[in-house]
Amino acid sequence: MEKFTVKDYKSKIKPVWCPGCGDYGVLNSLYKALEKLQLPPHKTAVMSGIGCSSRLPGYMGTYGFNGIHGRVLPLASGAKMANPENTVIAVGGDGDGFSIGGGHIMHAARKNIDITYIVMDNSIYGLTKGQASPTTPLGITTKTTIYGNVGTTFNPIRTLIAYKASFVARIFSANIKHSTDIIAKAIAHKGFSFVEVLSPCVTFRGKEQYDYFREKSFIIPDSYDPSNEVKAFDYANDEDTLELGIIYKKSRPTYDEALEEVRIKAKNDGVPSKLGLLNNFEV
Amino acid sequence: MEKFTVKDYKSKIKPVWCPGCGDYGVLNSLYKALEKLQLPPHKTAVMSGIGCSSRLPGYMGTYGFNGIHGRVLPLASGAKMANPENTVIAVGGDGDGFSIGGGHIMHAARKNIDITYIVMDNSIYGLTKGQASPTTPLGITTKTTIYGNVGTTFNPIRTLIAYKASFVARIFSANIKHSTDIIAKAIAHKGFSFVEVLSPCVTFRGKEQYDYFREKSFIIPDSYDPSNEVKAFDYANDEDTLELGIIYKKSRPTYDEALEEVRIKAKNDGVPSKLGLLNNFEV
Amino acid sequence: MSRNNIVIGIAGSGGDGIITAGDLLMKSASKDGLFVFMLKSYGPQIRGGESSIKLRMSQNPVATQGDKLDILVVLNWKDFPRFKLELLLEDEVVIISDSADKFPEEDIPIDKNKMKKWYKIPIAKIAKEASGTTQSKNIVMLGIISELFNLPKETLKKSIKKKFDRKGQKVVDTNINAINAGQNYVINSLEKIDDLVFEYKKNDPRIVMDGNEAIAYGAVYAGLEYFAGYPITPSSEIMQWIAKFLPKYGGTVMQMEDELASINAVIGASFAGKKSMTATSGAGISLMNEGIGLASMTELPAVIVNVQRGGPSTGLPTKTEQADLMQAIWGSHGDSPRVVLAPADVEDCFDTTILAFYIAEKYQMPVIILSDGFIGHRKESINPERIKSKKSGFKKINRRQTPNEEELKDYKRFKYTKTGISPIAYPGIKGGEHQTAGIEHDEYGFPSSDVDIHHKMTFKRYAKYDAIKKEFDFKRFYGDEDAEIGIIAWGSTKGAVKEAVKKAQENGIKIHAIIPQIIYPFLTKSFKEFLKKKKKVIVVEMAYSGPFVRYLRGFVDFGKYNVKIYPYRIPGGAPFTVEEILEQITEVVKK
Amino acid sequence: MSRNNIVIGIAGSGGDGIITAGDLLMKSASKDGLFVFMLKSYGPQIRGGESSIKLRMSQNPVATQGDKLDILVVLNWKDFPRFKLELLLEDEVVIISDSADKFPEEDIPIDKNKMKKWYKIPIAKIAKEASGTTQSKNIVMLGIISELFNLPKETLKKSIKKKFDRKGQKVVDTNINAINAGQNYVINSLEKIDDLVFEYKKNDPRIVMDGNEAIAYGAVYAGLEYFAGYPITPSSEIMQWIAKFLPKYGGTVMQMEDELASINAVIGASFAGKKSMTATSGAGISLMNEGIGLASMTELPAVIVNVQRGGPSTGLPTKTEQADLMQAIWGSHGDSPRVVLAPADVEDCFDTTILAFYIAEKYQMPVIILSDGFIGHRKESINPERIKSKKSGFKKINRRQTPNEEELKDYKRFKYTKTGISPIAYPGIKGGEHQTAGIEHDEYGFPSSDVDIHHKMTFKRYAKYDAIKKEFDFKRFYGDEDAEIGIIAWGSTKGAVKEAVKKAQENGIKIHAIIPQIIYPFLTKSFKEFLKKKKKVIVVEMAYSGPFVRYLRGFVDFGKYNVKIYPYRIPGGAPFTVEEILEQITEVVKK
Ligand SMILES: Cc1ncc(C[n+]2csc(CCOP(=O)(O)OP(=O)(O)O)c2C)c(N)n1
Ligand SMILES: Cc1ncc(C[n+]2csc(CCOP(=O)(O)OP(=O)(O)O)c2C)c(N)n1
Ligand code: SF4
Ligand code: SF4
Ligand SMILES: [Mg+2]
Ligand SMILES: [Mg+2]
After folding, report:
1. What angle do CA D55, D61, D65 make, to 5 degrees?
2. Separation of C162 CA from ligand 2 center, angstroms?
3. Which end of chain B is more exposed for a tag (fewer CB within 10 A), N or C?
4. Per-residue pLDDT for D392 more than 80?
């Protein structure tokens, strides 16, 4: 049986990200995770919205779709539900996901659509050259917060837990080994898996962002039990530390399993020929 | 000084809601709450999206705006921030708020915009004649879930807590006294206040929905302390009971206070005449 | 005077069972093989509100629900005024009402001389006596009019049986008693003061559909595999029908959180290789403009149904209008090609939907179907044989072209071709891995901001229009080709125009009508043929801003053909009457 | 040969400081009172990518950045090819490059005969020696060209001082040394092989702005009180400028979560009585269509800026196009009136924005400003006195009309009036309490699905157009009125057309151009005046689908005026050159 290596997951073009951008680490971790899982590139689709981070699909040797800003989850949900045999990975940024795309996460999560959603969170709008995002810390000055940001930050992990996502994790792009492991677990998870990546924007948040993430983050000890949503919610308060690893995980039926049930029920009512459907209009 | 009575808050037209609709109770509780607070009708704006519940502003003697589906929070945020002297109350349904409007709540909440958001949750799309909403229980058959609903329900209270809303409460439309009290507290609260109303749709969920809500709900005992978000999150699990009252409350600066700070900083940099701004383009 | 073509209106309150009565009448007439149209109308209440139906039955083919009522039945006078525009009356109209229902003289908008033939009958009382409940007064009423005007009687009882069967024999009996009581009342205690009698020959039974059902069925028939949507009046029934039947064939239906999600889910599903569709209206279509542009740019097949309603904004959700035409063509930012089709009646909703899938899959672009609330909710009796016979008649319902061995060696998803069509690979096809993007891209699909490439790709995307213009021609013409007076309309306006043309010809006016089904791209060649002999052309549309006439003039220099245009553009709300179109024709003739 | 009008291009890599050099050149020339245009261009990288600038300076008024370069400076040859279209070369072009930078013969798209005048100078080396770092090579380069071609020298040093001042004296000195070194190198060790010398008379200093800044400033000047927006290229700078300055005047700026939120927040703020605006582009404007319809229906003033970019979908975010015209007019579902304005250059961005607020507030409807990435990001030197003098020139920047005592007694927010304008009350005004709604409504604002009311209200909303058509006329004409050849274009295309017309006249061609500022509603009367003498009209637009020509034909029956139309519609990406427009003119003359 054919064996896939990292290069099978690479496309012909090179990233245009700034030197030092955190997204390089995410890309490499994703390559490695796919290799680890030995997923056939032709049965894998990596889809995105718009942003620096959303350029990632262009660097994949799998099927890829660089869609529109904020709509990657419906796009990916459509692709997955239309053909559940595909492995579908949605990627994007904090602006793409938490600002303009914020309305879609809760529904992909509660329906438990079997896709993986990787958000490269640099707490800034990179592609548009440095405006505040929902995760930009208070007080930070950006192109749109000249006098300091006054918008309290959005807490992705706590929110995803409240949304009943069945797999919620956080990684740091600089730690490729750990990131590879978690991304692989997320993809392997049956159901909606969410991975927030601390992925620095060296250009608009400065190299300091690496130090900031390094200081604040730590890898979750094995002793931690991710199966209780209240404990997980408590754990994920964003005031002091940033936990790295699987913060919450609880399995339940996926949406494709549920819709298969629906099809069975529908068929049990009888399956006429397409022309036979005319009977429904008889008087 | 002029005293306002319920009739001052009523408009010339009568509701077109179905007999027995839960929204009548919400409307009456709102009338009473405004009377209780003695808010001048001409300084109060009640705004909504689209839905049976969103018809409510039409029945108010205050300023009213029946906007478009899902956009009541940005609409209300604009009205409030443009003139913070106004009292702004946003109302709507579970489809309007949690489905199409789901992307706006987190931002109004985290920014702590000083408005009150009342969601009349009947777990169905009423105005469009009975399709499933994000809060429709599993298994229920509706016009769009002919073989039973398969979408896991959305938990509004837990989500609003994760969003860092500064006031989160739930009421039952049938209990006017309690509802009046909580709505009044929500409006009086400085900051973003969220009130989920269990408001039955007798036409598409049947009268049974009253019994269902009655059985499942209870009024929170005074012993309960709403100031801890983790306890509140735990409390608000939607598997067994529906708590009525203030589930979470913690005050912090409002967005208008924050923007006033911004203005002060900006002015400290100097305030040229409008034509004086030309200097910024000098070379 | 005996007639084989009759128009009936019924109005009443929520509890009166108006809609049920209308449905039963519709079904019985269809069972007898008649041509039947029915429109329903409601007040603002979701439940318990007043309602009315307008029904036309005819021995011979007809194209509209008819302008004015030959028979008006009112179960509750206070509800009538709201429907005065839906229920216009013939001078010779026969009125039937409940003698117990007090008539509020002043505020009833009917002029005295139309009240000459008026039956006041104790309908509720008869019901109470016959079935123990006044609830069945709508059935008693059916008994009365079926007997009084010789409407289908046997089939009416059959329909009643069929309808109430699952409620048990008792309920069936109550209703049969009710209808008998109504009929007996006419036979025994009523003296006919009018001479209106419906006479017809039975024919093979017809089926009953509305436009939304026809679109839903057409889609499933065309091989729909994935549907994503969000409810909105007056389009919701499309998703509801598909949600019931598509799963039987292994298809997927998802109710999304909004229309942004719906259109993007549809594009994602199309990317995955499936025939995909969404349906919406009003505000929903405005929200899809961005996504439709993405489908244009990624050259992915997608069928988008817009059941137009009154606008702007939330507007008139339950009423019809044709004001979304220009938006369908130009609604997305940038040069964003798409195809726009318009069905003209219920059966045409079925045909148009199949054509939409054919074009979307073959030409790899979004196809918008512009229906409207009028045909979307209008019930028509249809000959099932015609639908069966179409089976072969339709263009092969094909799938998008996929790359062959050779092409997969160095696969270029967006390869420049003469027709602009380049084979699509989708996940699952080995060697077809590629990037697709809403950002401008090269032949492989990789992002590019190169100006040359943008020009070439724009030409490629628009080249498809040339191919489409070659493949199709206008087909729907009425009247005499060599007339100097032409009339052009689109969509649901067809019915009124078709009958007006017929009447005009009867009045000796030479006139020629065209109702395009393919609206955009504009089939210029075909249309110039139409213009050849014309000197005057009336353009009819239900939109005050005149999108259709602006559109036509934008693509056809009428002046060059020495054709003078007479726009007839009015805001929406009520369907056109044959009479008002005929008036336009007669006036233009004089000019 | 001495010149008073010169076009310079500079290209290089990320580290080369191309943009800084361009800015310094722009400022120095503006300080000396010259007419200056500058365009910047970047590669796809956010940072460290290649970039180029194109700059024109002239003694006398000019309308464009010029077609071709008189001087090309390349700091890094490998980056040049990407900009070959932005940096077209005159035959006599003078080239300057770093002798240390190896020239990759084959893949440089410059034909040999344009390489006759080529200075190879050790720029980096000079920099290193003079300032201890090669980083300052961009400044050395400025020294070289300023000396070699007699570009503004004194002011260049002033600009350098001003720029580096806050970085401390040391940095200032390094850069002054660098510029001196460059100038000295030319004086001492370079032999001039070309005869290109720039000669000019100093004039009063001019200021520098780009179109986005001009719109932002215009808005604040017009009394903007509330701005809500969401970043998007190429419009983000508008919000950024306003976020810095509006709070000084007590205004409110909110970055929203998306464009749906932005437009609805703006409508909410307008409902609260404030002058409100948003700005966006591409996908963002497609998302606003629904909200714009709400503003139409609720008759609330709102200014919406669309800085057009290349489409469809994400398209070409950093490049310009004019393909959103029809969407601006027809983009929302339903009959949804709005006004569309188009600025034609940087200064006009300021004027147009003030006009937009005037119209929005007076006529109570959404006003869309269609700018584009070309003028949005183009820097121009402007005479500050003209802006100051305008102060009075502008129509009184008024506010929406509010109801008086009398009207408040029985306040009808949507009262039928001849002009369609009915006074607005907003929260705070006692007695003005009312309901506004996106659903159709009666004069009070209460929901109504009555067909009559819908018709009356539609007429009311459109009546405003008549008033607008009465109030305004087309103003921007070039060439001779009684020419038989006309040319019409809109927006940023003005510059190329204006200069082409001038050249055509020099070549003895009689031609007349019109560049409307008010695009929609269409000022028919005024335009027919223009058409009177015309036999041929060229329609120029940067959109392959031809929205502008379709639009014009939709409203003007050219055939009736015996005017033949010659559309020139091409996809976007690169701004029009004067030459290509002139070509069109000359060809049409022949026809
Ligand atoms: C509808 C729409 N609005 C705005 C934009 C402009 N835009 C492109 S990317 C982006 C945000 C980028 O931030 P993020 O998602 O965090 O990605 P990053 O660049 O930081 O990786 C914005 C606002 C767009 N492309 N489409
Ligand atoms: C953009 C848009 N999509 C869809 C609709 C149709 N629509 C109107 S109300 C509604 C949902 C109503 O449900 P909810 O918000 O729960 O209000 P309820 O009627 O139950 O009180 C929908 C889908 C619309 N008006 N606009
Ligand atoms: S701007 Fe920031 S996010 Fe974008 S590529 Fe550069 S470093 Fe990465
Ligand atoms: S349909 Fe349901 S929600 Fe709507 S008015 Fe009737 S009962 Fe209330
Ligand atoms: Mg980001
Ligand atoms: Mg609801």
Report:
1. 25
2. 34
3. N
4. no
